[in-house]
Amino acid sequence: MKKILIVEDDNKLNDGIKLALRNEFFCLQAFSLQSASDIYKEQSIDLIILDINMPDGNGIDFMIEIRKTETIPIILLTANKMEMDIVSGLELGANDYITKPFSLMVLRARVNVQLRNEKISEDVYKNGDFCFDFGKMEFTKGNTVLELSKTEQKLLRCFIENKGKNLSRSQLIDYIWQGDTEYVEEHALTVVVNRLRNKLGNDSECIKTVYGVGYTWARI
C-alpha cells in the first residue's frame, strides 16, 4: 500500500483527508513541519499533501529541501488563490496545487493521478546516457545494451525507486530476496552490487557506499 504524508495543522482537515484516503492508501499525519521532517526521514513516502501555511514555517521551504534529493509527487494546499503563488509553487517543484476549500473527492482523484504518473515514470528511468526500462527489461548505456541478471535488475530497481536515499544492507537484501534470506550468504549482496557496478562501467560511482549503513543511488 502506497504511503501518503499529510502535512496540515488543521486537525479536522487533516483527519478528513486521512478518512478520504485510508481505504486506498496508508496515511501518515503531521501537524507541523518538524514532525513532517521527522516522519519523512524515517519512512519511505510515496506522495506528500502539503499545506503551505504551517505554524512553524512555510511548507514551500520544506518542499524545496525535499526537491534537492527527491522527485516524489507533492500536492500543495493553500487558502491563498493568488495566481503568482500558484505559479511559484509549481515552478519550485509542486506537482499539483489545490486551494481551500476543496472537495475531498477531487483531492483523492488528484492523488490517484499523481501516483499513476509516478508509477509510469518509475518503469522508465533516463539519466545522461542511461536508459533503464524495467517494464520491457531493457537496459542501455548509450548504444550499449546492458545484460542484467534478475537479481541485478531487482537491485537496480530498488536503487532507482529510492534515488538519493541511504539503503541499509538488510533493506536491500529483503527487497532482492523478498524475505527468503535463510540461505543467502553474508557477502551475497556485496557480490551483486559489485557485478552491477562493473556493468555500469565508469558510472559505477552512481552506487555509492554509505559506510556503516549500506548503499545509495547518487545520480539523481
Annotation keywords:
14 strands, four-stranded antiparallel sheet, alpha/beta, 8 helices
Concise structural overview:
This protein has 220 residues and is an alpha/beta fold. Helix content is 42%, strand content 24%. The protein folds into 2 domains: 3-122, 3-Layer(aba) Sandwich (Rossmann fold); 128-217, Arc Repressor Mutant, subunit A.
Provide structural commentary.
There is one protein chain. With 220 residues, this protein is α/β, with parallel strands linked by helices. The chain has two domains: 3-122, 3-Layer(aba) Sandwich (Rossmann fold); 128-217, Arc Repressor Mutant, subunit A (Orthogonal Bundle). Helix content is 42%, strand content 24%. The chain contains eight helices and 14 strands. Residues 122-219 form the OmpR/PhoB-type domain.
List the helices and strands and how they pair.
Elements: E1 3-7, H1 11-21, E2 26-30, H2 33-42, E3 47-51, E4 53-54, E5 57-58, H3 59-67, E6 74-78, H4 83-91, E7 96-99, H5 104-123, E8 124-127, E9 130-133, E10 138-141, E11 144-145, H6 150-161, E12 167-168, H7 169-177, H8 188-200, E13 207-210, E14 214-217
Parallel strand pairs: 1-2, 1-3, 3-6, 6-7
Antiparallel strand pairs: 4-5, 8-9, 9-10, 10-11, 12-14, 13-14
Helix pairs in contact: 1-5, 6-7, 6-8
DNA-binding region: 122-219
Keywords: DNA-binding, Phosphoprotein, Transcription, Transcription regulation
Domain Response regulatory: 3-115
